[in-house]
Design brief:
By secondary structure, the protein is an alpha+beta fold. The chain has three domains: about 200 residues, no CATH class; about 50 residues, no CATH class; about 35 residues. Helix content is about 45%, strand content about 15%. Strand 2 and strand 3 form a beta hairpin. Helix 1 packs parallel to helix 7, helix 2 packs across helix 8 and helix 5 runs antiparallel to helix 7. The two termini are about 55 Å apart.
Length: about 350
Amino acid sequence: MERDGQIRACLTTKRLSVLSETAQIRPGDDSPDAKRAADSARTQLNAIPGGVAGLVTGALDALSMGYAVGELVFAQDGTLAAVKWHDPRRFAAVAGESGDVVAVELLEGGHSGNGVSAEILFPASRFVWYTYQKRYGNPYGESDLVAAYRSFAEKDSVRRMWLQGLDRFGVPTPVATVPTNWTQKQIDELSARLGTLQSETSIVVPHGVTIGYDLDAGRVEPARAYLTKIEYEDTQIARAILGQDMTTQGATGSLASARVHADVLCDWVQSLRSDIAQCLSAQVAARIAQYTVGYGVATPVISFPNLSPAELAARRELVEGMITGQVVAPTEMWIRDWLGIPESVSPSPRFPPSSE
């Protein structure tokens, strides 16, 4: 399904919308230990490959899979070295009575001595298990593609029907005018030869026979009907994944309608950000705090600014005024966090320095 252009566009829009803000890490309370734990979590998460953005990107696999599984890799000194995201179909969850994942089973396990497949269980603390749209304690969640499947299947069927129509009616139907004294056998033989005309460059017909094309026959294909159906299903796919369709469709409408659609997408994205941040706080930041500071410390909180377009515009205007009035310097790093802008990466020199 992800090979479909509309589904790919919608999922990419949703992913990039979530990643358009940078997650922040703050202490769970005002105690010195909580501040030290937050500093440790911030340092380690920024040091792993991909940083916090890579951590969120891995969790976003759940949009199409329903859940995402990441393996926590710790260095010998107890610090987090990486989070390796795996194909979630390789793992199964062992859930407790409350629905929480208490262990993770590797489905591609080895074999015991008697040739029977052996279960390989790992403690849940070794993994990040993010469940998308979790309901009724189901650890596997529900993918966005579930709601989009019917529209995808119907669109796929319409495409095949359209191709069949193009194959049949792509060339106008040849029409022969024959003398009235022809027998049915002669008519059938000529009809058979005309049937191969589409694959031949020329054909010889008896004297008195004229060949023409019925140009109206090419109109048998209801091209507009096929396009209308496909456009309708693309709209339903956009609504299933994004909650609205104007951010991916070339729809026309009023500015008010466009703002409503944009607000719907913003609400969905902000809710998704909060859900992912809560999971990462409990399953990543909390474990970093336990390993580096100790148990009993308040869990560092990972969160997104979740600014609405109006709030973001107001903050930008305020920062611009403060920079113009020389109240703050434009290089101060807190500005990026406050505006939800990802941290800058210093570009490496394209060429090595000259030896001269």
